[in-house]
Description:
The protein is of the alpha/beta class. Helix content is 38%, strand content 19%. Strands 13-14-15-12-11-17-18 form a 7-stranded mixed beta sheet, with helices on both faces. A 5-stranded parallel beta sheet has the order 8-7-6-9-10, with helices on both faces. A 3-stranded mixed beta sheet has the order 1-3-2.
Amino acid sequence: STIQAALKELGIQTVNPGGSTGSEWWSDQSNRPVLPSINPATEETISDIIPCLSDDYIRIANVSVDSFNTWRMVPAPKRGELVRLIGQALREKKDELGTLVSMEVGKIKAEGDGEVQEMIDMADFAVGQSRMLYGATMQSERPAHRMSEQWHPLGPVGVITAFNFPVAVWAWNAFLAAIAGDTVIWKPSPKAPLCAIAVQQICNRVMHQQGYHGIFSLLITDQSSLAETMVQDPRLPLISFTGSVAVGRRIASTVGSRLGRALLELSGNNAVIIDETADLDLAVRAILFGAVGTAGQRCTTTRRLIVHESRYEEVTAKLVKAYAHIHIGNPLDPGVLMGPLIDHAAVETYRAAIDDIKNEGGSILCGGHVLHRPGHFVEPTIARAENHWPVVQRETFAPILYVMTFRTIDEAIRLQNEVPQGLSSALFTTRVHHSEQFISAVGSDCGIANINIGTSGAEIGGAFGGEKETGGGREAGSDAWKAYMRRQTNTVNWGTDLPLAQGITFG
Ligand code: UN1
């Protein structure tokens, strides 16, 4: 089958379809309960995975700590060269890895391939950055003194990723960490272990060929206690976490109590605003991708639509018509636009949200049903709702779009901002006053604010992340690399006197 071929091509040994998968670098014992990797479109087990136990963590963490001591001495451009080779290896396996992503987490093949492309883009970005870990020089207030700063490697970094971007989010973190001189311990989602194994195989094949070991490690587990052990480990100065607000809060307080750094990328509740001047053809296409893409399971998914009241009928009519043509099915089948949700629990969360909308008095404009067939399929849904309803205020990881109306741009921006999350936002307009206000200091309060493009599908070149309950972290582009390094300020006195700062005379 497609998947067995892809697994073989990716170097993953399965004993038989549905058989166990194991490998020396994350576990050396096979007499333990296995973790199944399940295809959400069929509910069939793709393979059983041997997970890590606490003794594995000790070994993995020791290797990561030891490897850091040598890795930090490898010149950054050389570290970049290794990431360049990894990017090359990913290019060669893009099709197979894209298929595996599609198979294991249910996003359509185009989006699975897109995710691998995001890794490749990130590798290229990191290669360039490896020669640009710039520090500033400052003018000293004292004669014959020189002040400057340097960026040094930080240490082994723990990276915890979610099922919905099972490979790209690791790449955002791992490639910057690697060029920064850090080693990485990756705890992937237990819902996407095969993707993690495949990526790890690709990277470590390159690293081993070049004579490096222990730079990238994998901690596969579905035990929160084992993840907790990693988060508590004082040898890991940085924990990067992508996932829910609830878990992010716990991680932030655990890491905070040992005064480590947490880099958080948590929930979004992203809105598109359509004003009275917007180009609706653009807007409808962007909303379709934003609300239905990845079956509504991106942190950047469009969840709220805030429409000028004069355009409500037109916009909803166009959207309902477009939604009627969405082909739901196996994400690997051509023509399918929306695959399944990740698991049964996600379907129940969808169902609960639909019930809540109805109980609040909202109306379902289209969709609203769970599909009764193998796989975790639901209908993409549009509902008339009000912003303050608890169901609208929370992030439901499913394709549900809440529509509401506004009269003035101030009101639209206020509605956009009146949720606990602050990740992504977008305004469709042809009026410059509106677009400038939206991205001004009194506009959107999100980490990402777009004009005439949707809320999802950000490029890696910008810093990715958000404010408020989204957690404040920034990953991928711009100067996000700084999170993976420690800054050192150096003041050098090249004179023969010892003038004190602030003009102090002492003794
Ligand atoms: C996520 O959903 O965790 O902007 C990341 C986007 C993608 C990344 C999403 N580039 O939609």
